[in-house]
Amino acid sequence: MAGGNQNQVAEDKTKTQGHSEINNRLKYISLTVLVVQNASLILSIRYVRTLPGERFFTTSAVVMAEVFKVLACLLIILLQRRLNVKGTAAFLVDAIFVQYKDTLKLAGLSLIYTLQNNLQYVAISNLPAATFQVTYQLKILTTALFSVLMLKKTLTRVQWLSLLLLFVGVSIVQVQQGGNEAEHANQNYVSGLGAVVISCLSSGFAGVYFEKILKRSSASVWVRNVQLGIFGIALGMLALWWNDGAALSQRSFLSGYTTMVWCVIFNQAFGGLLVAVVVKYADNILKGFATSFSIIISTIMSIYLFAFHVDPLFAVGAGLVISAVCMYSLPKASPNLNSSSATMKDRTQMEAFQTKCATKQKGS
After folding, report:
1. Hey, what's the torsion of the CAs at 268, 274, 279, 285, to 10 degrees?
2. Over the stretch 6-62, which tens digit does the pLDDT of each residue have?
């Protein structure tokens, strides 16, 4: 009987080790996906905006990204409901149209996201990719502030210090960029900086507000994304007519689209959804490292692709931002609390296992 218990312990230990190895692999896969998605999106947008020839309508690219995002979410919902087309259609009609008051709550949020997506194109078109990547980390600051104000979250002293370092680092980078403004005749530094600042503010508010809605609702994140996408497509078309209506009458909706432009749109549409899936396997520390690696990769690639010049001032500012991101991602719990929690968990698991063994013995 003792031999049977030992075999059971060995099997449980093997399963635990197997799960641990799988989770570790998933964490590193998540880290890689986050780094590639963050860096490639910014670099690819910057690249397509600097190519010679007919330029595509950025407003139409925003609309197409929303279309693909909605289609992807609809496919996920259909798969979750085991390919039951009729049942899925009835479920969506009820969630979106019958409960229209719930859907309307996302109208304002969708407007903010549409504005943010269009402003990102403006910012990347007028700022070097590396400068945008560093400056865009201000969204951590805005998200933290809105979380404190709207969700009553508390920040540690280390996190407040990291936010201060973040602001100082971004300011240094902007001083460096402002000094080199004359080197970029085809860019409008003021427009780019204004666009990225407004984008950070909208990103912080929208992210916190969306989190607040999700916590107060039983609807899945995929249904919420479909609701957002419907408004996003409508508002995106309105922005297209408002901003590019005159030019659109002479050119087609997909005018200027190349293979690289389609890659950017797919990255925007599916990249965000992919990140949402893999983030659950990556803790805050890994997400912080992913952001830091993305900044480094964007800077290195900008040197080769866009002849970006890294001077000591930019290096100092970017270094402060990277340090701030890593500091902000540090866990809040104290080591003593973690140790006691782990000890209690181990004791509970041991007691449960002993009870299970005793039950088996009685049964035999």
Report:
1. -50
2. 555 555 555 565 556 666 676 677 778 878 888 888 899 988 988 887 889 999 999
CB 166 within 8 A of CB 326: no
Q: Rounded CA gap, 283 and 332, in Å?
A: 12
Evaluate whether 183 touches 90 at the Cβ level (below 8 Å): no
Q: What is the pTM of this model?
A: 0.76
How many distinct helices (H) and strands (E) make up the chain?
Answer: 14, 0
Q: Which residues contact 59 (CB under 8 A, 6 or more apart)?
A: 118, 236, 239, 240, 243, 244
What pLDDT does 70 receive?
Answer: 93
Contact in structure between 141 and 321 (CB atoms under 8 Å): no
CB 57 within 8 A of CB 244: yes
- For 351, the token pair is 């007691």
What letters, b where the CB count within 10 A reaches 16 and e where it falls short, cover 48-63?
bbeeeeeebbbbbbbb
Residue with tokens 């950025």, as numbered in its chain: 58
